[in-house]
Every structure is written in structure tokens, then in C-alpha cells.
Amino acid sequence: MPEDNSASLLLLMGQLWGIVFTFALPPLIDMSPSVDCSSVLSPLALLLTIFMVIAAAVLLMYRKDYRRQKAEKEGTAAEAVADSEDAADASPVAAAAVQPV
Fold first, then answer.
1. CA-based angle 83:89:92, to the nearest 5?
2. What is the C-alpha R_g of the chain?
3. What is the pLDDT of residue 77?
């Protein structure tokens, strides 16, 4: 059930950020970048750029143990060993030794 909790929390945070942005961004959109047009950075562009930099930093620092991928790699290695043992068991010499004459 932890997957359900994390998915629900992710959806909830998306909704809450949507509400915050709905009320916070219109005043920032109405502000002009500058009177003499010397800059294209409006307060809104600056805010969104800061959020993107923070999100990128958090994403780059995130290190996760990918247990499923590790188990698949180990399972593939174990299957290869089992297949090689099965191939050795299926050789004609081994088959002749097992069957009674």
C-alpha cells in the first residue's frame, strides 16, 4: 500500500500547487518587466526560473536504489547459470549415463 500513499500524496501536492499558482500568478503577470524595456525578465519569469532551478537541483541530487532492476539483473544471471547447467545435463553422455540399458 505504500505505492497508493505516495501516488495520493503526489496528486495532492499537484492540486495544492495549482491552487497557489492560480492565485499568485495573475498579479505577477500584470507587472511589466521594466518601463524602459531594458530587460525581458518579468517577476513571473524570474519566479518560474527559480522554481525550475530548484526542481533541477532536487532531481540531480536524488539517488534511488533500483531494487527491481537489480533483481532482474540477478535473476537473468541466475537463469543463465541454470540454463548452462541444464544444457550440461541434457548432453548425450549425461543422458546415456542416466538411462538403464
1. 125
2. 30
3. 66
Cα within 13 Å of Cα(36), Cβ side: 1
Under 8 Å CB-to-CB from 45, ≥6 apart: which residues? 33
Closest CA to 42 of 21, 20, 27, 57: 27
Q: Tally Cβ neighbours within 10 Å of residue 22.
A: 9
Supply the angle between the helices 43-61 and 2-30 in degrees, to the nearest 10.
160
Q: Identify the pLDDT of residue 89.
A: 60
- 56-75 average pLDDT score: 84
- Residues 24 and 12: their CA atoms lie apart, in Å, by 18
Contact 3, 10 (CB under 8 A): no
